[in-house]
Amino acid sequence: MSAVVVSSTISLIFARVYEQKINENLSTKKIYIIRHGQTDFNLRGIVQGSGVDSSLNDTGRAQANAFFQAYQHVGFDKIYTSKLVRTRESVQQFIGKGIPYEMLEGLNEISWGSREGQEITPEEDAYYHWMIEEWQKGNTFQRIDGGESPDDVARRQQVALRHIMKNEAERTVLICMHGRAMRILLCQLLNYPLSSMDTFEHKNLCLYQLDYTGSMLAVKKHNDTEHLKSLVLAPAV
C-alpha cells in the first residue's frame, strides 16, 4: 500500500468521528493510547522490537513531559504499559502522582527476531518492505525470521485487552505501548482486518483517544501530537 493510499484512507476514516460496534458486555471507558517517546534506537534507525529494552533519550523524556503537562488534568484510574522500560518511562510522571499501573506482556512490541538491534541497511529495508507488503495482502500469519507475526501479536493482545476492559471501575485508562503493536491493537478495537494496520499512522508520543459508550467506540483523536508542538524534535523512525 502506497503512502498516498494510506494517507487517503486515514483521511476518509477520521474526517468524521468513527464509531464501531464492539462487545456490548464491556464497560464504559475512555481509552488513551500512546506510543512511547523517542529512544536513541529510533533516532539512529535501529530496529528495536520486543527484544531490545531501550530507554528514552533526552528528546523522548521531553516528549513524555510535554504529554504529562497537557494531560495531567485527566483523571486516569489506571495506567497500563508493556514490560519494556521505554513505555514505563514515558508515563513515569503520571505514575509518580500515585496512579495505579500495571505492566502487561501482551502490550509488548512485535518481535522483529534476528533483525532486532540491527541498523536498517538497504537489504534490511527491502526485507522490511517485502514483509509489510505480505501483511497488507492478508498474509498476517507470516513471521519475521526468528520473530512474530501480526497474528501472534494479536493473540497475546487479546488476553491483555480482556484484562483491561473487564474492570468497570477503571473508567479512564492510559495505555503506553509501541508502534507496530499499537497498529495491531487499534485493528482489534475497531474491528479492522490486520492487513489494514498501516492505516493507523503513529509518531513517538502520539495519542489515539477512544471513547467507549457501552456499545460503540468513538475515535476522538488519531495520531495526535498537538501536545508536542512546542518541542523542537530530532527526526526519528
What's the β-strand tally? 7
Low-confidence parts:
1-25
Radius of gyration computed on alpha carbons = 17 Å
| Strand arrangement in the largest pleated sheet | 1-7-6-2-5-3-4
Q: Which secondary-structure class do the elements indicate?
A: alpha/beta
Q: Treating each run of at least 4 consecutive H or I residues as one helix, how many helices?
A: 8
What order do the helices and strands follow? Answer: HEEHHEHHEHHEHEE
Number of domains: 1
- The name of the CATH topology is Rossmann fold
User: CA-to-CA gap between the ends?
Assistant: 18 Å
Helix content: 25-40%
Cα shape: globular
Sheet-strand content, in percent, reads 15-25%
Largest sheet: 7 strands, mixed
Instruction: Quote the average pLDDT.
Output: 87
- Name the CATH superfamily assignment: Phosphoglycerate mutase-like
Task: Give an account of the 3D structure.
The structure is a single chain. The chain has 237 residues and is an alpha/beta fold. It has one domain (3-228): Rossmann fold, CATH 3.40.50. It is 36% helix and 16% strand. The protein has helices at residues 3-14, 40-44, 58-71, 85-90, 92-96, 122-136, 150-166, 179-189, and strands at residues 18-21, 29-35, 78-81, 101-103, 172-177, 207-212, 216-224. The chain has a seven-stranded mixed β-sheet with strand order 1-7-6-2-5-3-4. A hairpin with a 3-residue loop joins strand 6 (207-212) and strand 7. Helix 7 (150-166) packs across helix 8 (179-189). The protein is globular and about 45 Å long. Mean pLDDT is 87; it is low at 1-25.
